[in-house]
Amino acid sequence: MRYRINHRTEYDYDDVVTNSFGLAYLRPRPLPWQEVRDSTVTIEPVPADSSRDLDYYGNAVTYFQVTEPHDRLAVCGSSEVDVAVPIYDTDRLAVPWEEARPAERPDVVDAWQAQDFQLNSTLVKTSADVFAYAAESLTPRRPIAEAATDLMHRIFRDFTYEQGATTVKTTVAEVLANRAGVCQDFAHLTLACLRSHGLAGRYVSGYLSTSPPPGKERMVGADASHAWAACWIPNGGWLAIDPTNDQWADDRYITVAWGRDYRDVPPVKGVIFSEAKKSTLKVMVDVEPLGLSASP
Questions:
Q1: Which of 30, 144, 156, 290 could make an SS bond with 2 (beta carbons 3.0 to 4.6 A apart)?
Q2: H/E element holding 8?
Q3: What is the three-class DSSP state of 269?
Q4: pTM (whole model) above 0.85
Q5: 36-66 as b/e, with b when 16 or more CB fall inside 10 Å?
Q6: What does residue 3 show for φ and ψ, rounded to 5 degrees?
C-alpha cells in the first residue's frame, strides 16, 4: 500500500520564546518492506540552523534551532511511503524462546546489537510481577513467535484501552496494576515482559492506517501516532507485534523509528529559553491511503 502522512505538532506559549532547540523523529525508516518515496520536515518559524542525520539506532532525525522570537512553534512532517507485509522465515519463528536470548546466541551476527534491547531502560523496568505475568506465555520450549503472540493476545484481553488513564511518565508497574493504558503503555509492558526473561524487545514508533466506519468519509487529521513492539528472532529479524490491536504489524503499519522505549523516539522533543509559564500542545496526524503500489 502507498500512503501519504502529514504530522503537525504545534506549541503555543503564553510568553515569547527567544531560543528553541529541538529534534524531530518524523521521517519514516527505509526498510526491506517499506520504501520512503519522499519525506520532508518543516519548522515554523524558519530555524536559524537545521540538519538531518541518523541517530545511534539508524533512525532519521531532524535537528533544529529557532532563534527568532516566537510564541508559537510548529513542526511538520510530510512523507509518502510504500509498505508491504513483512515476510518471516517460519523455521526461524519456531526456535524455542529459550534459544532466542541474545546473551545465549554469540553465534548470531546481530546478537550484540539486540542485547541493548534486552536491558532495562528509563520507561521499561522489569520486576517479579512482570516476570510472573510473562511466564504464562513463555512456557518451556515454546516457539518464540508462538510465545510472543500469546503474550500479545493476553495483553489485549487483560488490559483496557483508555485515553487519559496514563501519561508519558507512567511506569510499567502502574500499567500492570491498573490494567489500563494506551498503545505506548502496552508496548512498554510487552517489552518489559520479554526483557524480564532475557529476550530482546524494541519499541517501535510510527503510524497505523485506519479505515472509517462503513458509509462514513475519512476524517482528515483524525489519525494519531501509534506504537507497538518487536521481538528479536535469531537469524530471523524482528517480529513486530501490536498488543493494542492484537495483531502482527502488516502493510497498514508505517514505521518511523525504534528505540529502547518512548523516550528514545518521541515525534518531537527539545528545550526552550523563555519566561513562559504555560503552553498548549496541538497534534494533527493524517494517514491517507493512496492505493496499491508496485513496490517495495
A1: 290
A2: strand 2-24
A3: strand
A4: yes
A5: beebebbbeeebeebeeeeeebebbbbebeb
A6: -135, 150
